């Protein structure tokens, strides 16, 4: 049996306890102790007493000892209360630095379990606790989270507001983040104007509220904190501009395609290629092993459905129907109706090209060597490595297995297709509205020469496109450099612009002008709020389905 002095030297024991004996049966360590104080205070009247009534043994679970569970058996005394006016005549002495009244574990064990519960949750926390010698169930850890004390955030001066989803597709919630201290202030169930107004109205110290462009947040702040300064998030401003640009460019697909195929390169004259260049290596390709109809059939059928949908939406729009009614009648979203009603022709069928490979520059050489009879992957890998190839041999081995498969099937290699443009190239392609909108938003210094030439040709073909690009660049520069003082001049230019999309976007900004101006001037944003929403989702996934509002809120506030 280990001595009491050995345990006292190995572990920190509160001064008010005196270790008398230690027993260890191989699976459990038991420490017998008693209190060292001669007097005790009554918990009601706080008067000291030295008259002992009796004693009893209190068993407390403690932190593990060498990976084995440990418990304290403390002999606690009862005292008479000599204060005549006190209602309690007999009381038990309190173990202030050891355990709470009526607790079955020590304070340090409770704190350790709370740390584990808040960090890992129920199931994962229980597995870790068992490994280190703390025998606890997942439900007990969740109860520790619910019963833990949460300190009030106090006065909040700058807060960020945003919504998130408890579950995908439904169950929205609202998160409040203190942007000065970078911590979650509160999590609310639901996302509505009344809920936000009620929460903000209870905090008169609020001075600044950062939000997105949604009407729910704006109206809730107006009702709950009318004196607070609202700041529109800069990322959402650029995102809104990108969305309206994409819808606008969908109506200009003909111009987008023409600008990508300049007249001087649209039709190459025969005989202009370098003599002998095409005969240097045979440029045959490996046929696709998948049947053509297995890919082409569903794609063609889907495009036919989209064309019929466009025809129906376009017809109802020309007949004068409202967007809401068209969406209900056709069973499509309103965004689809907005996009299709402006198209003068059916939406084009997307073209998905073959994914490029790092072996493409060396494929003609490998095919030529294969036809010469060299089928050794290691030798071919070394030859192309000397020519500049810097990737793995596994890619070469896989390509040669495709060669071998083709020969085993008795099939001939197909004739070469026309070479495709390099990644990121525009010439000869059909750029999508999303890609061109991204080019409109990109900084001028980050555009390559081909992209600049494409945008110049595109803007020269249409004055509305030229205005849209110029105003987009000016607005993006204002947002990035916090030049809110230039907003009024930009709005005047956009209002008189030839591009209808910029006139509509400027009209939307004017409805929320004070918040937009603050967003372009001040440094506050909802960026930290988005980060905490991401963290909130990670905490919820760690809950294994046991992360409803009270548990999620408790863990998030303690994080």
Structural summary, described in words:
- The chain has 559 residues and is an alpha/beta fold.
- It folds into six domains: 102 residues, no CATH class; 38 residues; 110 residues, Nucleotidyltransferase, domain 5 (2-Layer Sandwich); 112 residues, no CATH class; 67 residues, no CATH class; 59 residues.
- Helix content is 47%, strand content 15%.
- It contains 23 helices and twelve strands.
- The strands form three sheets. Strands 1, 2, 5, 6 and 7 form a five-stranded mixed β-sheet that branches. It has a five-stranded mixed β-sheet with strand order 10-9-8-11-12, sandwiched between helices. A two-stranded antiparallel ribbon has the order 3-4.
- Helix 6 links the parallel strand 11 and strand 12.
- Helix 5 packs parallel to helix 6.
- The longest helix has 27 residues.
- It is extended and about 110 Å long.
- The two termini are 43 Å apart.
- The N terminus is likely disordered.
């Amino acid at each position: 049996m280990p001595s009491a002095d050995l345990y006292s030297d190995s572990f920190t024991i509160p001064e008010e306890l005196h270790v008398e004996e230690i027993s260890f049966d191989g699976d459990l360590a038991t420490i017998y102790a008693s209190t060292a104080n001669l007097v005790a205070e009554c918990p009601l009247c706080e008067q000291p007493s030295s008259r002992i009534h009796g004693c009893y043994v209190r068993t407390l679970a403690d932190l593990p000892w060498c990976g084995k569970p440990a418990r304290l058996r403390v002999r606690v005394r009862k005292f008479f209360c000599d204060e005549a006016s006190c209602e309690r005549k007999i009381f038990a002495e309190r173990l202030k630095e050891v355990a709470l009244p009526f607790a079955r574990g020590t304070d340090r064990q409770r704190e350790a379990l709370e740390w584990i519960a808040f960090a890992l949750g129920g199931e994962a926390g229980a597995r870790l606790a068992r490994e280190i010698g703390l025998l606890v169930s997942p439900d007990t850890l969740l109860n520790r989270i619910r019963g833990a004390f949460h300190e009030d955030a106090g006065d909040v001066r700058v807060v960020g507001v945003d919504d998130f989803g408890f579950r995908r597709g439904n169950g929205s919630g609202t998160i409040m983040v203190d942007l000065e201290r970078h911590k979650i202030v509160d999590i609310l169930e639901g996302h509505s104007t009344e809920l936000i107004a009620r929460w903000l109205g209870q905090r008169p110290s609020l001075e600044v509220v950062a939000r997105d462009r949604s009407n729910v947040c704006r109206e809730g702040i107006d009702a709950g904190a009318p004196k607070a300064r609202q700041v529109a998030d800069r990322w959402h401003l650029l995102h809104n501009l990108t969305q309206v640009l994409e819808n606008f460019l969908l109506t200009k697909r003909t111009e987008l395609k023409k600008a990508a195929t300049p007249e001087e390169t649209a039709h190459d004259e025969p005989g202009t290629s370098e003599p002998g260049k095409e005969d240097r290596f045979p440029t045959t390709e490996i046929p696709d092993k998948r049947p053509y109809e297995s890919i082409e059939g569903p794609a063609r059928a889907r495009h036919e459905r989209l064309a019929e949908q466009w025809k129906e939406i376009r017809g109802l729009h020309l007949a004068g129907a409202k967007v809401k009614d068209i969406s209900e009648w056709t069973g499509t979203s309103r965004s689809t109706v907005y996009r299709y009603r402006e198209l003068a022709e059916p939406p084009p069928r997307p073209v998905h090209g073959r994914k490029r490979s790092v072996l493409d520059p060396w494929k003609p050489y490998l095919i030529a060597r294969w036809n010469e009879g060299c089928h050794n992957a290691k030798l071919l890998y070394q030859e192309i490595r000397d020519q500049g190839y810097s990737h793995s041999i596994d890619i070469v081995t896989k390509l040669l297995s495709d060669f071998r498969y083709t020969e085993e099937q008795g099939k001939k290699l197909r004739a070469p297709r026309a070479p495709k443009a390099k990644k990121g190239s525009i010439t000869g392609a059909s750029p999508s509205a999303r890609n061109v909108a991204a080019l409109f938003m990109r900084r001028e210094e980050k555009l390559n020469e081909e992209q600049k030439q494409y945008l110049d040709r595109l803007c020269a073909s249409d004055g509305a496109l030229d205005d849209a690009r110029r105003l987009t660049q000016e607005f993006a520069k204002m947002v990035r450099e916090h030049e809110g003082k230039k907003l009024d001049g930009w709005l005047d230019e956009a209002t008189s612009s030839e591009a209808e999309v910029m006139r509509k976007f400027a009209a939307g900004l004017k409805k929320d002008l004070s918040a937009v101006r603050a967003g372009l001037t001040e440094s506050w944003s909802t960026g930290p709020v988005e980060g905490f929403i991401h963290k909130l989702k990670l905490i919820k996934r760690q809950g294994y389905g046991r992360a409803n509002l009270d548990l999620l809120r408790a863990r998030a506030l303690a994080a």
